[in-house]
Design goal:
single chain; mainly alpha; 63% helix
């Protein structure tokens, strides 16, 4: 799942990637999520579209203390997508974004 890929990139950081490659990898993951929403139907499509609306232009912002509320909304949106998929008999596991440990 592209959302799991994004969560892993955010958690691990850029590693051996250049800054440009890292940003491109996050953009690619977000685009895959968007395409999944376009390919879905009904409530699953709506939930993925809602999730994409929550995601800030720079996903790393969700990990900052100033973006914690956005990260919380994003993680709740992941739960909503998972629940919608479950209602269609498709079980998925989505990895939440790691949030800043302070308020």
């Amino acid at each position: 799942m592209a959302s799991n890929q994004l969560a892993r990139l955010l958690y691990d950081g850029k590693g051996n990637l250049t800054s440009t490659q890292y940003q491109q990898a996050m953009t690619d993951a977000a685009n895959k999520m968007d395409r999944a929403g376009l390919a879905a139907a009904g409530v699953v499509q709506q939930r993925i579209n809602d999730l994409m609306t929550i995601m800030p232009p720079n996903p790393r912002d969700m990990m900052l203390s100033t973006g914690k509320s956005v990260g919380q909304k994003y993680n709740a949106g992941l739960d909503h997508v998972s629940n919608a998929c479950g209602s269609e008999n498709a079980t998925i596991t989505l990895t939440p974004v790691t949030l800043a440990p302070f308020d």
